[in-house]
## 1
Amino acid sequence: MLSKRLCFTLSLLRPDALQVTSVSGLKYFPPPKNYDHIEIPERQRLRMYDKVPQYPPNLKPPKMQKRLRYMRGPEPLHNTLQLKQYGIVATGGGRMKHEHFEMARLQVARRLDQKRMFAIWRIEPPWQPVTKKGQGQRMGGGKGAIDHYVTPIKAGRIILEVGGKCEYAEVHTMLRIVAERLPFKAEAVSEEIMEQKAAQEKWEEENNQNKYTMKYIIQNNMGGCHKMLSPFDHRWCGKYL
């Protein structure tokens, strides 16, 4: 108990000094997640991919056209997490070179706790040839020689996955660093984040009060927009470039 003189002094110096706030109470901490069902494979790190695909010795490496359709539009197949945990998803189309594979592999290898985590690729190694002519050459003379190989990526494609006995906060920094250094737009996600985004997109589509959507405008040729649109805009209604 404070003495009367001390209480009077405190009330003069600071009127609210005698107001006692309770800071103790019943605390509730949720139990940790159970990871007993997760099995760590023998190989925890990302495997190293070849820079050049291996062809039979009697086969000349074939050349190929640009085929930009390989990285346009949404990914129809590999757009969900197999491990139902964490990964990197592409939000735009692009091409991955061998340097990008090595960057992701080394970043994951430095920050991965192999005792309780593992990572897997969800994309194939570089397979599409890209030709290039030497500097200063004249036009003509046929198609140039193969310069390097790439892997085309569509929007929504899962690049890699990280699983194991870990939380999303533990692997978020690692996945974010890899996603920022890729040659196309990508982001680090978890299974819960992907479910929330899908639910939010569905809700916005169902509760949209503006009937003049991009799909409605293109279908009705409003403003004569057909002469300024490509076949890809008619197919995806301006959602994918």
Note: The chain has a mean pLDDT of 90.
## 2
Amino acid sequence: MNVSEVMQTPAQSCLPDDSLEMAAQMMAQNDCGSIAVVDEANHAIGIVTDRDIALLAADRHQPLWELKAADLSGRHDLYTCREDTDVHEALHLMADKKVRRLPVVGADGELHGMVAMSDILHRLRMSGRATQDTAEDWREALETFNHITTPSLPITTPDRSM
């Protein structure tokens, strides 16, 4: 199965100078947790997630309408895939880079769609096949999800004995 069979199109996107308020509104209206940041030629240059927005707003103590997508889009490396990328390859990239979403781009870098971990899991659920391949696909998807969501910082609990 290729990414083209599970990706969301059209991908929601914004420009670097767009406010994070607008980006958050697009996410709310389209029930998604991220949008791509594109240049004037629709080339993917970054990604903005709902978590990124919340953390930046808290860090800067500024309202979202004062913050721009460019404030976030260069903070992390951008990982992408192509429409003909095998879903298993996309899962491996997500696990390796600890990301839940990948912009799907053409050979020239133009944004074609977005694939999320949830898109892959939804497709597996909808496939309804009881074959060994499906069981292996589930195992791989769940291992990827587990790897992505494992905290990178040690979990500490407050000492309440005092």
Note: The chain has a mean pLDDT of 83.
## 3
Amino acid sequence: MSVTHEAHRASETGKPPRRPPRRPSRRATETRAGYAFLAPWLLGFIALTAGPMVASAYLAFTDYHPIRGGSWIGLENFEKLFDDSRYLESVEVTLKYAIIGTPIKLAAALGVAMLLNNRRRGQGSYRSLFYAPSLIGASVSIAIVWRAMFNDEGIVDGIGQTFGMEAGGWIGNPDLTMPMMILLAVWQFGAPMVIFLAGLKQIPNELYEAAQVDGAGAWRRFRQITLPMLSPVLFFNLVLETIHSFQVFASAFIISRGTGGPANSTLFYTLYLYESGFGPRGQLGYAAAMAWLLVIAVGVLTLIFFRTSRYWVFYAGESR
């Protein structure tokens, strides 16, 4: 029916003409489609991230047991933490691992990245070979293999005895368990190596050529060109690897068989958190308090990194 006929009919009946139904605009359609695609992530975030975070924040102020339930006790869990010698040992072990292991891992990643930055035959194969351990990650299978290599009958102990080291394995020696854990972390330097390699590709060769003409040696070129130009990438890797060092769990759990031994030398923070919440004691409230202290500590440390980065991180186009 035409619009003119519809208007004439409306004038005869005294009713206003019917308007054709409005089609939704393209923007509205795209908005609804966007929310539809976003809905699974939002539901997952609420159910798997935000919900557990709110629940753990509540549990941190309760004396909660999975079977007996719990009651509100306020800040008592946080006060007991600082009187818990085992908790303080877990903090010490984790800090030692982060302070020693993270710089060594980053140095190894940067060194290998600089070697791979030069064009050579089979370069892609070398990159894949060095990156492969990071694909495996801190899996249970790798931890089992690592334990078999470093126990009293492992290949590492056999090689060490040929060089005069005492028998007994690294796992049973409290003085060697931390170097063993750091070695496992350094072995998986593939991820920061790839990021360093991408940053090295962005440094203009003209800078090195000009410095070489001025008589700058390899160390001077590294110190005055490579490090300043690579400082944003170094900062990124430093923040990520520091956070990862506070999250060590699977390897420590498998290697120590969940005990944190010997002599609490592998009692990492997350391992004691798991033991407190899901061990025989079942102190979920106590474990939740530990978890929130870890979140706060990592947040404060990250904030310190960002605040101090202005003194040593240099971005292109900035005047210093």
Note: The chain has a mean pLDDT of 85.
## 4
Amino acid sequence: MPQIEQLAGTYSSQIFWLLVIFALAFFIIGRGMVPRVMDTMTTRDARIADDLAAAQGARDEADAREEAWRTRETANREAAQALVNEARDGAKRAAEQRLAGVRATLDARLNEAEQRIETARSAAAAEIEQVASEATRDIVARVAGIDVDGGAAHDAVRKVLVHG
């Protein structure tokens, strides 16, 4: 075969050009392009690392601010609850004071009413005794025809009213 026979004559020249092409590719790509690509990748990796560090710093700061906010919010909530409790206690004390005042007024009115009732009852009892004494004198005078002294009739009526 003629193609195989030519191989011996062109073999050395093909190997020479193969080595020249590989050497050019090595120097152009390996020594020229790869370092630039590696520098770009190193720069990119450094920028990504810096961005991640900045993001982590921002996250830590946000967490610290959130914790501070929660602490303030808890303190504010406790202060508000204390104010509510204080207002409730103040309202309760004021209501109790008003209630005590109203109770005192009602007790005074009740005592006054009881005194008026007692006075009216005493007056009514005295009037009943007086009317009963007069009625007794009139009845005895009509039935028995005897004129009874007013004091004796009053004593007799009082004795009956007291002892039944």
Note: The first helix runs from residue 2 to 143.
